[in-house]
Amino acid sequence: MSRPVQGGASYRAVLALPHARGLALAGALARLPYGLISLPLLLALREAVGSFGAAGTSVGVYGLLSAVLGPWRARLAERRPATLRLLAVAFAVVLALIAALALLAAGGARGPVTEAAAPVLAVVAGILPPPVGPLLRARWGALADGEAQRQAALSLDAVAESTVFSVGPLLGGALIAVTSPGVALAVVAAIVVLGFSSLAPVLARTAAPAPTPPALPTPSDAARTEARSSGAKRRSPLRSGGFLVLLGAVAAVGAAGSMAELAAVAGWGASVAGPLLAGFSVGGVLGGLVYGRLTWRRSPRTRMAVLGAVGGVVYLLPLLWFAPASAAPTLLAAGAVTDATLITAYLLVDTAESSAWINTAFNLGVALGTSAAGMVIGQDGPRAVFAVAALVPLLACAACAVSTLIGARRSAARPTQERGMTDRQLDAMSADLS
Predict the structure, then answer these.
(1) For residues 143 and 18, is the Cβ–Cβ distance under 8 A?
(2) pLDDT digits (tens, 9 = 90+) for 295-324
(3) By C-alpha distance, which of 142, 120, 156 is closest to 27?
(4) Quick check: 245 and 305 in contact, CB under 8 A?
(5) pTM of the shown model
(6) Where are the beta strands (DSSP E) in 21-70?
(7) Do 48 and 179 belong together in one domain?
């Protein structure tokens, strides 16, 4: 079993790294629009098109494109850093145009132009969101000195992200309450510009997170040189079976959490479920903080399997006692497991593109879990959802365990010189040779 040992790197040491405080503050500001945007965008589109149905569909397409194209944007920004500014400016401009259409419609100028243009602009906006999280995690990995400090840095980053997405909707609702959806969305666009104006110089001052594998025997060096000279591109991480298993485990955790949240709403109503869902966020923050301060006897791959098993057991409690009193500790612990799983997944990758794929897998898992929970509730009621929510991470646990065993056997068969390399270094080496 993977056992924690006290004595990991401290958060004070992480924040003492060169440019670390600037990266944390600028990163929080650049992330803030993503926490704020949901309500202002939905209600601004509703004002522009005059229909909640059309607005909801547009927001759904925006979210889908934003998630699916995230790895592509991260890869582009990682290879050509100048494109990050272009994405940020274009994203802000499109949001400002939607805000202007909403303000025109609110003033009585709604017509065929606003009703047709606003959904198109929402689709375009889904293509453009700059990859803040993946780039920040890659930079933290480059700044950290050793694996323990890298774990603490990624945990701190995960806590910051969870906090932004917990507070953001409240701030977005407050903006709409004191102004209007159009003005609130315009404020979001302004924060996009401000956030990236602050983040871009910090990213420029930090080293690019390019993994460098150790020296290998001459045949491997020759093969790598030949591959580079032939113009071969870096291999997509999706060509790795182990990486696909990792994405599946992350998607399973996202699906289980979203299923439990919907079951709580369906089972006890919004007024009771609200504090329970807040407990999920609080559990994520606390779990991330504790996880980052621990060192572990086992590898991150083994931890992924253990966390899947823990997640499955956590969701069983409401099956034994279906009441808010049992759901409260369940969702608190589930939030902690979710953030710990994401942090562990981020530890297994080096590049912004791979980190973005983890985000995409999690978001798709959330979407699939919500859809599946709706069907289960309609068929068997909300209590049955917790049974499915428990099964999903347990299956992911089994897949991770099998993947870890296969990886261990392959590691035992590697030459002695390669056996000391990390999995991320081996992945980088194979990418260069493909």
Answers:
(1) yes
(2) 777 788 888 888 888 888 888 888 888 888
(3) 156
(4) no
(5) 0.78
(6) none
(7) yes
